[in-house]
Amino acid sequence: MKVSNLFILLLALILPLSLFSQSDHDRLITSLIGETPIEEDLQELCDQIGGRVTGTKANEQAVQWGHQKFKDAGVNAQLESFDMPSRWIADGTHLEISNKSGNSWTPLAVSKYKSKPGNYSGKLVFTEELTEEYFQALATSIQDNFIIVSTELCLDIDGLFAEYVHAKKVEDLANKYKAAGIIFMASRPAKLLYRFISSTGDEESIPQIVMAREDAKRCIRLLKTGENLGIQLEVKAETGDSFQSHNVIAEILGKKYPDEIIIIGAHLDSWALGTGANDNGCNFSMMIDIARQMKTLNIQADRTIRFALWNGEEQGYFGSEAYTKDHLKELDQHKLAISIDIGSGPILGYFTNGRKELIPLLDQLLTKVEGLGPFHNIDAAIVGTDNFDFMLQGIPNLVARHKPDLYGLNYHASSDTYDKVNLTALKINSAIVASTILQYANLPKEEIDQFKRQSREEVEEIISNQNLEFIMKMFAVWQPWVEGKRGLQLTKKALQN
Ligand SMILES: [Zn+2]
User: What's the gap in Å between 417 CA and the centre of ligand 1?
Assistant: First the structure.
């Protein structure tokens, strides 16, 4: 879709000011809603570079591409290297099921991140219930064989969350009862496949396979009739040790307080079954578009606005974690960190990640673009994207909250392609996000200083109040926090506990 005059008309209604007295804010959001190269950029990224798993050539191309886009726009940008803990690049999964009469067939399947490569065989055991008693009763048949579990249909973001919780329970039981591997029924219909990380995070796990929903249903129907099914599985992946990767960090210096930083980021990497369009190419392109329009219009905020294209997000937000470590000395100067990572559905407000004191301010800032709303800010803490290490460092942080649209259905799936992006909403989202960061970066000193960097105890309180322990375990980020390897340093009090 090309921008239509409708938007300009819409804006004229939203913005009360005439062209002659337009503020930087109004010029910026008018230009972002007007014609910009964001759609061409996104198409180029998705269709030419495509899926960009950290550690692949396509990922390095995406790094160079993003860097060049900032440079072409005249925005100061650099690559910042960091070490990814290990390499695991999928190279195919082959699965064959056979029954006792000698028939065999090959369901569609993909392995989860860090499934141990190799050739496996065993029996398929349907585990209908996820309780200790149930697994105990089947203990001998589960050991050294493959369990298969059914999964609820997932069509939205709530469904995704439920799926991660379900998977964690399955993994814990499978490991306890020494299953050789796990077959998860895919949660999406029409043989759609997708890739997840498991709760072991960066540690190698037993093979964990997502099998096409229809294929898994067939297996389960047969098992329920008492049929014996055998499984032959080959998991192929390119594996290796730690390797160097890059974030792209660009900035437009502040004119009044250049040392104070508002950082806004979107991850540049993706899984590669699809082309990472909604997750997260659309918002990768948004970062470039906002920086480019600010530069074109010669807009400088009072504080520095830093644009981050994070890498290694899908494996555990390693790029943003590395940034918080490499920039430790200037973290006190980071006044806000925003992460945009929930696709291209219309923005409905922000998640404030335990910093509910930000809500009245955001309510007020969003009135400037209220015609693009309505907005509702929610104090829920998001674990699972690049705000996370800023939260653990006590820095006020936000995640944009989007209308789910097609995000859940296409999440990490082969269907996450350019044609699924809501381009109209993406342009409006850029304007909303730009409005927030520009206003925040221009807040008077006494106002911005109300939103302080927190102590470890205060962050612990957020984690406890928002019941984040299970979710952090689910994403394998609980232990590093507890051990003081991620986030604020352990205090004497924490060490005593
Ligand atoms: Zn993402």
Answer: 14
pTM metric for this prediction:
0.94
Domains and CATH numbers, the chain: 5-85+242-454 (3.40.630.10), 88-240 (3.50.30.30)
Nearest 10 degrees: Cα torsion 409, 168, 196, 55: 160
Distance 26 CA to ligand 1 centre (A): 29
Residue 56 is given by DSSP the state S
343 Cα–ligand 1 center, Å = 8
Give the Å distance between the CA of 276 and the centre of ligand 1. 8
Helix axes 282-296, 423-441, angle to 10 degrees: 50
Q: Each residue of 78-111: pLDDT tens digit? A: 999 999 999 999 999 999 999 999 999 999 999 9
Q: How do beta strands 303-310 and 243-252 pair?
A: antiparallel
pLDDT at 6: 53
Q: What angle is formed at CA 420 by the lines to CA 210 and CA 112, rounded to 5 degrees?
A: 20
Give the span between the Cα atoms of 234 and 121, in whole angstroms. 9
Ligand 1 center to residue 126 CA distance, Å? 32
